[in-house]
Amino acid sequence: MRAPRGLTHRAALVGSIxxxxxxxxxxxxxxxxxxxxxxxxxxxxxxxxxxxxxEVYGEIIDRAGGAGARIGVITAASVPESRDPDAxxxxxxxxxxxxxxxxxxxxxxxxxxxxxxxxxxxxxxxNADSDAVVAQVNSMTGFFFGGGDQYRYIQTLLRGPxxxxxxxxxxxxxxxxxGAVVAGSSAGAQIASGPDMVSxxxxxxxxxDGSAPGYFDDAxxxxxxxxxxxxxxxxxxxxxxxxxYGREGRAYRLAADTGHDRVxxxxxxxxxxxxxxxxxxxxxxxxxxxxxxxxxxxxARAGTSPDGWTLCGARYSYLTxxxxxxxRTWRVHPxxxxxxxxxxxxxxxxANTDVFHxxxxxxxxxxxxxxxxxxxxxSVVQNTATxxxxxxxxxxxxxxxxxxxxxxxxxxGSTADTLVGLRVSIxxx
Length: 429
Prior knowledge:
By secondary structure, the chain is of the alpha+beta class. 23% of the residues lie in helices and 26% in strands.
């Protein structure tokens, strides 16, 4: 299941819940206290998890107990069965029930002892406080949150303006604290966010217009939920489908607007595994064919010129398969099978006039931002490369610079895979 182009996903029901959310100030869930560490772990996938991704499915199952793993599948981010016109067609249906059955079958295929749909969705909101469903949750050793619209998880599993845990979510949180794995893809990864979880938007409109608290019918408008999602992850904001939909721009803007100094920008079919989630010592590992961007705003400065919004002093790192990251020290540890890259490219970095892969450009390329960053890393003749947005009025330039501390690692000795500490600035023209 993939996110619709233009936002993370769109819920059908907004109503008074959003108005109440916007009036509330950010706070911790349930107890009113800050997050504490857990003995369990997270496996957060950037969306479009392929059926044959044995590395990621195997990691979830191993962390849930291996051959004895029992996976609870939560698909409340999907439309409910009552809203799916193809609900009766098993080959076409796309709703919470049939998606729950789909993932349950996949986890069994990949070696789990059992996998069951947890029957909570917009048709069964009351089930989130059912003692019988809580008992089902308590019999599981791991959990998987499917994709769709993360706001539906708020509607179904959190309660009231302060977003307190339902009984089912409280049980899942307790299982995580005692060692269970909690995984999710796309919306299922986004919902692990703490305060200021993204609710939609495109990069260009975000850079031009800024972000706002709420959940908007305009798919391009950059929005966020002040209280966030479930708050399983502490060290950063999360974005998903990043390279395919060119979301680096919106991620930088949202972080700058809301005072966050880091974003984990997850690419598709690739997982970010988090040990000690919720603590100040979160340790992360990347698994999969793409990667995870770490957008670092510790030393960034944002402002507004007469022409528009600017950002300077930001950093960009990109981690690939089996690279590790220490959130407390901000250090990247490239996988031992990679070697330090010595730049050898003598050709100029290719021009890039669609750095955020605009939906308005039928000839655009996915992973455009990453592509320019890697091309610069491989260049022996350039230390700086400037790309731009496809849209104008204003057009934004994105300038990549290799500082003295920049480094790249390679799996084959010639092409850049892992990038550490590229400098990024964004300015209108």
